[in-house]
Design a protein that fits this description.
Layout: H1 4-13, E1 23-26, E2 31-33, E3 47-50, H2 53-58, E4 62-63, H3 78-89, H4 97-102, H5 107-118, H6 122-140, H7 145-151, H8 157-167, E5 179-187, E6 190-196, E7 201-206, H9 212-223, E8 226-229, H10 233-246, H11 263-273, E9 281-282, H12 283-289, H13 296-304, E10 317-318, H14 331-344
Helix pairs in contact: 6-8, 12-13
The structure holds zinc ion.
Length: about 350
């Protein structure tokens, strides 16, 4: 868990002991900084905290020019500076071997130096930056969830283009068989992304969900598979089931799911699937049911880490006092889903 208040205080104090511990993304300017940045400090509500530079990039923040968060901890080599600047000059570029040659940079040296400094290769860095930008475009074109709920949703090709840019990384060594496919699904509550292979679904999430790019990246790493645009049988199946669900004709999803998580998370997700359609439970209820009554915070975290919106019904979990609690896809959607199911029973 990120300790926002502690980090914010460290930011105000410019505490050097927090260097490398966290980075701060500033929503009002779109840049991310180190804790000791000399620039004027943002308001708390404009801060988003990250424990790695990569996460900040994936959330579509660009590196601050004053504190240069990618130069931590020491002065970086000229080669790294050159490449970071080249990415900022053209952040949507896909890097190929000849691009390195044009900059007179040796690809394997670049890879090694990036890995050592930032814990990611240069190509991962460039991809993180590119994905962050594409996701931001999607969100900016799609910020009014309430209006969508009222008017129904019309997809635009701009969103799809940005989506293909995120998912479209061509496989290098691996063939088409060893990849996950990602599809764009238009639903009553806005566009969703479904990722799956021929056996099961790996992810189903609203496209504008905060942190979706981190989830996709995590999936890529955990499954050790490329994610490419495409469609598979489980994706077709979930598209059909979602239609029926939104029409009020389906209460239990049958599409097979491939769960990637810790044993505790899986246990919570299985329990969520036992909450009947049209009913709600509290985090404390779930903790008690799995035999760990004091673990309701951990339950809430597992709930938030759910990778299958609607299908694993984390929207059916609310606060003990009856308030809605949180929802990764946004509270208007949670409210809508709960009401929709109440009408269907
Ligand atoms: Zn800065």
């Amino acid at each position: 868990m990120i300790k926002a208040e502690e980090y914010y205080q460290a930011l105000l104090d410019k505490s050097p002991e927090y260097e490398g511990i966290f980075y701060v993304g500033v929503k009002s300017t779109g840049v991310f900084c180190r804790p000791t940045c000399p620039a004027r400090k943002p308001k708390f509500e404009n801060c988003e905290f990250f424990e790695t530079a990569q996460e900040a990039l994936l959330a579509s923040f660009r590196p601050c020019k004053r504190c240069r968060p990618l130069s931590h901890p020491n002065q970086v080599s000229e080669l790294v500076t050159t490449l970071v600047n080249a990415v900022e000059a053209n952040p949507e570029k896909r890097w190929k071997e000849r691009d390195f040659q044009e900059l007179s940079v040796d690809e394997s040296t670049a890879r090694r130096q990036f890995k050592k400094r930032f814990g990611m290769t240069f190509v991962e860095y460039a991809r993180a930056r590119r994905m962050g930008i594409a996701m931001k475009q999607i969100r900016e074109g799609d910020s009014v969830i309430d209006a969508q709920l009222d008017a129904g949703y019309e997809s635009s090709s701009g969103f799809r283009d940005a989506f293909s840019r995120i998912m479209g990384a061509a496989p290098t060594r691996l063939g088409q068989h060893h990849s996950l496919k990602a599809s764009w699904l238009d639903t009553r509550l806005g566009p969703m992304v479904a990722v799956g292979d021929e056996e099961a679904l790996y992810l189903l999430e609203f496209v504008d969900r905060r942190g979706l790019e981190r989830e996709v990246e995590r999936l890529r790493k955990c499954a050790k598979l490329a994610v490419l645009p495409g469609i598979t049988a489980p994706i077709r199946s979930i598209e059909k089931e979602l239609c029926q669900y939104f029409e009020g004709h389906l209460k239990d999803f049958k599409t097979p799911l491939h769960l990637l998580g810790s044993p505790f998370q899986k246990c919570v997700w299985e329990e969520l699937q036992r909450i009947p359609y049209g009913e709600t439970r509290s985090y404390a209820d779930i903790a008690a049911t799995i035999g760990k009554p004091s673990a309701f915070r951990a339950v809430a975290n597992a709930n938030g880490a759910n990778q299958f919106a609607i299908v694993i019904p984390c929207h059916r979990v609310i606060n003990s006092n009856g308030e809605l609690g949180g929802y990764g896809g946004g509270l208007p959607r949670k409210k809508w889903l709960i009401n929709h199911e109440k009408q269907g029973i």
